Amino acid sequence: MGSAGVRLGRLKANTSALFVCDIQEKFRGLIHGMPAVVDTASRLVRSAEVLEIPVFVTEQYPKALGNTVAELALPPKALVFEKTKFSMCTSDVDKAFRKMNLDGIGQVLLCGIETHVCVLQTVLDLVEKHNVEVHVCVDGVSSQRETDRSVALRRLQGLPNVFLCTSEMAMFQLAGDSKHPKFKQISALAKEKRPDQLSAL
């Protein structure tokens, strides 16, 4: 929080959770820039594991759409939920997240698909129902059509307590200091070669 109660969006590892929305096998050939989404999500998941940040993962009707892509290599402690609702905030997710929220988790870092449907509705629910900051990684969200993605990001940009960021911005904010004991691991993740990146908006 800044002066006069203004939220500045300063991410901290001990108050953050990572939400990964529906990055599933069936969408590989459908989503614009899917390799970048998968690469970014993988880097965020590994950063969360290094920094001991809780990870929430949803899978939209996995019986038909497949499970989370293997490249994400979800850590053992990741909480994985099936859903049919577009928003990640199902009753099960709400229940699990509410417990963490009471323990001081008040910021969510979000990546996944599709930006204009599941990601947007997740943001609305998180802000409205849980009163948390949501940090949307623009290099880790996409839709089938570029126009839908762009318009959704512009809509998100205007919402209260919602911040657009890149995965690298988020990772270095979460570490906070080059003297952080896990800084070298975070720095190594940031330096990895990446596929063609998605546009900002």
From TrEMBL:
Residues 16-158 form the Isochorismatase-like domain. It comes from the Eukaryota. Pfam families: Isochorismatase. InterPro entries: Isochorismatase-like_dom, Isochorismatase-like_sf, Isochorismatase_domain. Belongs to the isochorismatase family. This is Isochorismatase.
